[in-house]
Amino acid sequence: MASMMQPQIILLKEGTDTSQGKAQLLSNINAVTAVGDVVRTTLGPRGMDKLIHDDKGSVTISNDGATIMKLLDIVHPAAKILVDIAKSQDSEVGDGTTTVVLLAAEFLKEAKPFVEDGVHSQNLIRSYRTASTLAIEKVKELAVSIEGKSVEEKKGLLAKCAATTLSSKLIGGEKEFFATMVVDAVMAIGDDDRLSLIGIKKVPGGNMRDSFLVDGVAFKKTFSYAGFEQQPKKFLIPKILLLNIELELKSEKENAEIRLSDPSQYQSIVDAEWNIIYDKLDKCVESGAKVVLSRLAIGDLATQYFADRDIFCAGRVAEEDLNRVAAAAGGTVQTSVNNIIPEVLGTCEIFEEKQVGGERFNIFSGCPSGRTATIVLRGGADQFIEEAERSLHDAIMIVRRAVKNSTVVPGGGAIDMEVSKYLRQHSRTIAGKPQLFINSYAKALEVIPRQLCDNAGFDATDVLNKLRQKHAMQSGEGASYGVDINTGGIADSYANFVWEPAVVKINAINAATEAACLILSVDETVKNPKSQSAQGDAAAGAMGRGRGGGRGRGMRRR
Amino acid sequence: MALAFDEFGRPFIILREQDQKTRLRGIDAQKANIAAGKAVARILRSSLGPKGMDKMLQGPDGDVTISNDGATILEQMDVDNQIAKLMVELSRSQDYEIGDGTTGVVVMAGALLEQAERQLDRGIHPIRIAEGYETASRVAVEHLERIAQKFEFDVNNYEPLVQTCMTTLSSKIVNRCKRSLAEIAVKAVLAVADLERRDVNLDLIKVEGKVGGKLEDTELIYGILVDKDMSHPQMPKQIEDAHIAILTCPFEPPKPKTKHKVDIDTVEKFETLRKQEQQYFDEMVQKCKDVGATLVICQWGFDDEANHLLMHRNLPAVRWVGGVELELIAIATGGRIVPRFQELTPEKLGKAGMVREKSFGTTKERMLYIEHCANSKAVTIFIRGGNKMMIEETKRSIHDALCVARNLIRNNSIVYGGGAAEITCSLAVDAAADKYPGVEQYAIRAFAEALDSVPMALAENSGLQPIETLSAVKSQQIKENIPFYGIDCNDVGTNDMREQNVFETLIGKQQQILLATQVVKMILKIDDVISNSEY
């Protein structure tokens, strides 16, 4: 207490929360483990969904790790890292977001006893890094390439990958149906990197089997004016004109004002305005287009004008839809109706307006460039379709990654067991502390098959031991054995087509290790008090509680 | 909600405003969700079937709705619970797709949830229950496909369509005149249907209602009915062989859209302006007369001056007709909508054999009938009834009937109603259950039991002994191996739904089973509910 006598040295602003040392490290690990526990149960085909209300009262039901992490609205600084790795996994490979969070949490959990025992965390970090490099090499070594197969064969294989991803989702019951759809969609856009070329449209109603794939573009009927119903609704090989201008009777210049001193000139002004719009419309008609789409409004006058001339038009088409039509039909979006040359007009085999559930859809199919695809999703409830869309997004990403990086590894925990075994063996060859650390890294990898069993309600220990035995076989024939989710036993994942692209696993191991190392390397958190003025009272109140509750046991220094 | 505690038992703050959130997880979450879903189903259960009761709902603004239609009831209830909302959406999506059977699908989902709860108590994993349900629903749908019957109809022989629509209407408040309403619905659909493409655009059928008269006065008009009258009381009330100019421009001097100002500094200039305005009116009316129009229908209004001029020139006119109606009139009369007087040509006029204004009873309200149109692809159903609620409910009932007729034109397969389809599916699913190894078998059996709940509710609502009736019908079905036996709700004296002419569409029934299964799976799959505690 002698220090109390000394004059107080104020280094940081008052109210700043600092916590440091080993205690801080442990508290961070605890927080991360707690977050890992939240998403734990969503893993695998028997994983459950989470229903989350957010502040605004909207609700999401999801199985997707990244979505859940994002919605949890985590404020704990260490735990936030998990959100980031989940997001990065999502943007990098699109799937395996739960896996990466789970792995990171497990790595830290294994590290905790060592930290408690006084191991320096840099030692741990170094060993974890080595282990992850080794693990990734092993994954690459085990991966099987699907390169060099015929297109048909490759499609089948890709569908297997997509099915594995979908099996854990709500639409798992129809995974084959959707897997083929996803593979077709991805194949349709070819090597093009623009994911926006695959459109997903959601139409409530119907059941999921009513979902269909359009080899072109589909979008909902836009707002229409009187006269629209008199337009023809079906064309074979129409010319398509894409515009980004308003076809409406309107003032040409916002701030212009016309002053008339002679009332008899009145009519000429009116005529001039009409002539402008008629001129525009005439040019559209002259171009020979049968379908006119515009991103901006097409007014009632234009609608009726086109109806008179048997032309279909749709105004206020969403930009992404218009771009997709442009890509699919091979046209270019015009910002003026002057000088329309035939090259800028697109075309497709069939254009049709069709009833889908309670909505009418404009469908362009059989497009020449074939570079787009649209999936029209049907489902019983809005939440259902939302979740289905997220699941399909994951599957699309997976297939895309698999197309580019065509190596696959057996899923169902098989690859994790094999890598774990390899690391264990490797650790035996090391003298010194790293042996222990690498061994615990290996143990942490086993969390995937263990969690799969736990979620399915199987005896995890029993299954894991069976798996260990298989993987320990010298011949290596057991290398692709994983959890059999249907029987509660083990099965050859590779033979059962439970496949995932190698890149998912590699990225997951990499990101999880990075996150774990990052958290291990932190020994002090300095948290500034929230600036009072900007956030207002509400935020300040919340912060007050946050500080008072005490994150970690950082001693308040005085 | 606390996710984790440190060694001293203090909670970590991991989430924003963590202490305001509540979390329900594991079996508790499932139980709570199931309870919510069941509660919704229980409300609708008593509305099922011909002897089902109606619900009276009072909206936040004091408006009252009385309905028997599942989708409408749930929509008006304004539920807050998320799981209950799923049930509402379930009903709505049945409404979008099929238009009928919105009550049945919720009752079915409720029954499935109830059965699932029992299985959960046995310790069966929720996802395995859901998977079992999915397998079972596939069995049921295939079975329906097998027992479904096709019937032929054409424009002249539409009796089967009427029978099916009658089944739908029999559960509604309007069942008193179900025969005539069903006929109206079928005729309306046939009038607008494209039998080649098997497509029906229901937008072409306009349903209009007016308080007064009796339900029996409800009629089908091969043409359009507009709730407007002639712009001038002295205009003729009846026009035969009308040539109609359909305008979207007002009878007003044109206004440029650009900002403009007319400087008037002398009396002469004012005079010219005034004269010019008059000239505009004159020209407009003259143009209409020139092309041979005998009636003007305008989307906008016109000045009193123009009105007077029209009257004077003997050109009847109707003003302020809505865009949708205008479009329908254009379609029906084969005319074109004209946006500008300069564009008027004789070819663009619509033709109708008879346009007449009709006034009702002692009120001064009048409506305009446009009949004997050149192209009768647009029709109007005009509903009369004692009060507003009655008319609204009739509209909804007619909508259901129209949807049924449309579905039959799309796919002319039917199954038998009165619970017969559910009972035979239940038998089929039960028989199939034994073929599946594993825990799913129990779920499949539970599905079969849940299917029984629909005929059960039918019997209950009709005042019959539910268990006795169901078991009797079931044994009859098995004994004679005929899937037509259902619950005799109307006490006709026979269980044979073929004789009673109680039909439902195959796609409607299949959709019900699939949708209910889908939503139940979604509910079962949730094991964690994180919410702000105010919810």
Automatic annotation (TrEMBL), chain A:
Start-end of Basic residues biased regions: 548-558
Keywords, ordered alphabetically: ATP-binding, Chaperone, Cytoplasm, Nucleotide-binding
Domain of life: Eukaryota
Species: Brassica napus (Rape)
Gene3D superfamilies: GroEL, GroEL-like equatorial domain, TCP-1-like chaperonin intermediate domain
Region (Disordered): 529-558
The protein's role, per its UniProt record: Molecular chaperone; assists the folding of proteins upon ATP hydrolysis. Known to play a role, in vitro, in the folding of actin and tubulin.
Localisation: Cytoplasm
Record protein name field: T-complex protein 1 subunit eta
Complex and partners: Heterooligomeric complex that forms two stacked rings.
Lineage, top ranks: Eukaryota, Viridiplantae, Streptophyta, Embryophyta, Tracheophyta
From TrEMBL, chain B:
Keywords: Acetylation, ATP-binding, Chaperone, Cytoplasm, Cytoskeleton, Hydrolase, Isopeptide bond, Nucleotide-binding, Phosphoprotein, Ubl conjugation
Alphabetized Pfam families for the sequence: Cpn60_TCP1
Location of the protein in the cell: Cytoplasm, Cytoskeleton, Microtubule organizing center, Centrosome
GO cellular component assignments: chaperonin-containing T-complex
Job description of the protein: Component of the chaperonin-containing T-complex (TRiC), a molecular chaperone complex that assists the folding of actin, tubulin and other proteins upon ATP hydrolysis. The TRiC complex mediates the folding of WRAP53/TCAB1, thereby regulating telomere maintenance. As part of the TRiC complex may play a role in the assembly of BBSome, a complex involved in ciliogenesis regulating transports vesicles to the cilia. Molecular chaperone; assists the folding of proteins upon ATP hydrolysis. Known to play a role, in vitro, in the folding of actin and tubulin.
Family: Belongs to the TCP-1 chaperonin family.
Protein name: T-complex protein 1 subunit epsilon
